[in-house]
Here is the input.
Amino acid sequence: MHVQPPVPVVCAVIVRDGLVMLAQRPPGKKLGGLWEFPGGKVERGEEPEAALHRELREELGCEVRITKKLPPFVHSYEWGSIKLIPFLCELKPDSPEPHPHEHTSLAWVESVKLASYPLALADVPVLTFLA
Here is the structure.
C-alpha cells in the first residue's frame, strides 16, 4: 500500500496591535465552520513563502511581511495528511485591510483567547507553539 506524503500547506499568523487574525472556514467545505490561520496549499515547484503571499492575496486581498518562519507540523485527517508550514507575519504598512474573500468571517483575537475558538485540528500545534 502506497502512503501519500503530507500535502504542504502554509499559514499566516498575522499579528497587529497585539491581536492575532483568525479566519472562519465556510460551511460546505472541508472543516467548514472551524477557525484557522489563513493560508493554503503550496503548488508544485512553489516556495512556501511565495505560496503564502499568493494565498493571502487570493483569500484576503492583503500583503504581509514575514517576520519569522515557525517549525512545521504534520497533521493527519481522515482524508489525508498535511504538513502545515506556519509563518509569523504582520500586515505591510500599505496593505489593504484584509477582507474574507473565501472565508465566512475574520476575527482579530487576543492571544490568550485564541484557544476559545474552535480551531481546525492542524492549527492547534501552532497555537501551542505560540503559547
Notes: The radius of gyration is 14 Å. The chain has a mean pLDDT of 95. The CA atoms of residues 66 and 89 lie 4 Å apart. The helical segments are 48-60, 124-130.
